[in-house]
Amino acid sequence: MSHYAIIVPPLYSHIRAMEALALHLSGKGHRLTFILDPALVVRGNPRLGGCPSLPETVQRAQQRFRDPASRTFFRIAGTLAAHTDALCRELPGILKRLQVDGAIVDQMEPAGGLVSEFLGLPFVSVACALPVNREPDLPLPVMPFRYGEDDAARKLYAGSERVYDRLMQAHYRVIDAYSRRFGLAHRRRLDECLSPLAQIAQGTATFDFPRRELPDTFHYIGMFQSMPDLPPRRRNAIPQVFATLGTLQGHQYSLLRTLARACQLAEVNVTVAHCDGLSPAQVEGLYRSGATRVESFVPQREVLAQSDLIVCHAGLNTVLEALAARCPPVVMPVAFDQPAVAARVTHHGLGRKVSRLAGASAIASQITALLNETDDFQQRLAAESQAIRQAGGAARAAALAEQAIETGRSVNAGAARVCNGI
Predict the structure, then answer these.
(1) Model confidence over 274-318: pLDDT tens digits?
(2) In the predicted model, is pLDDT for residue 417 greater than 80?
(3) What is the CATH classification number for the domain harbouring 283?
(4) Which is nearest to 317 in space by CA: 145, 200, 202?
(5) What DSSP state is assigned to residue 201?
(6) Which of 99, 100, 134, 95 minimizes the C-alpha distance to 111?
(7) What are the entry keywords (predicted)?
(8) Where are the alpha helices (DSSP H) in 331-392?
(9) Is 396 helix (H, G, I), strand (E, B) or coil?
């Protein structure tokens, strides 16, 4: 069988999503090597692991992601640029040494596409976050804007795109330099480094904003993570709320404390998962503020199945898991593509949005309102849950990636379903 490299930024949610895809491919007999420190990758599967003896330059670039300050809006371009630069320098030698047959590349890391094309390796692109594919009448996937089709909306999207592109110049310069060095067609942005064979994305067409210019090789697959069977939904006597800010924001104690107070005001029970972000004293502070249960981590999909509502940071993985479980979200975006995910939740009427600066009473009002939504809302939630569950998940993503890499040919949406029976 074949050996695939997986090229992904060292971000928890991206790694876990790629691991779910990798597990399905390993079940087909393929070997998979993540271009990451082995300590960051799940253990116990002999066909799946990290990359031993990573060059020091790559290790240093990946370690920068651990510092929250390096991921702030005005510093993220430099962090991404350093990672792309290190990979473009070292990845050709790494992939040759590993003798891989192809690559599976996160859309957020352009080095994977640039180096694969330079070496003549087939590769597929994977969107673990919102797709970076650009369209002239859509906001970028990091922008908080509502969807609109009027001239004012188009001007807003175009203006914000220009500002974003200026802020990302450090990253763009690296992409441009290596595309020239490798003798490739000129490119400078993430969306110009995507696979011509297959592009695989979490989510559904019904969750995203209306798109008109996606390539025929683009495939929504729902969620990479497996989903438990959906039991009949019954309202708890005392509503149960799950609150999380994800792995990168779980340290935000003041925000979690406000959420706990909001749930107390709304007279609901709340389970808080802080993802190892809080000290024991801060955990006690959450209990004093009204939390019913506080854990570092919980089995999230099981908790969602038992919860009446989730309050979360609008991370794409968490929102998709909530929608699949028919657990309505109150979204409180903090960073990255979360404001854009929140915009899609509200655009489709699948939940409510509240500012991260809101007080406990405002959040409590949104919780109460969402718990008392109409039958129309429940029908929309059920329809999106079904769309996610029927999109194919990691099994379909694995079949698409395998077909593209093994044949070296583009995999169009209609043809893929016929060939793979999914």
Answers:
(1) 988 889 999 999 999 999 999 989 999 899 999 999 999 999 999
(2) no
(3) 3.40.50.2000
(4) 202
(5) E
(6) 95
(7) Glycosyltransferase, Transferase
(8) 338-347, 360-371, 375-389
(9) helix
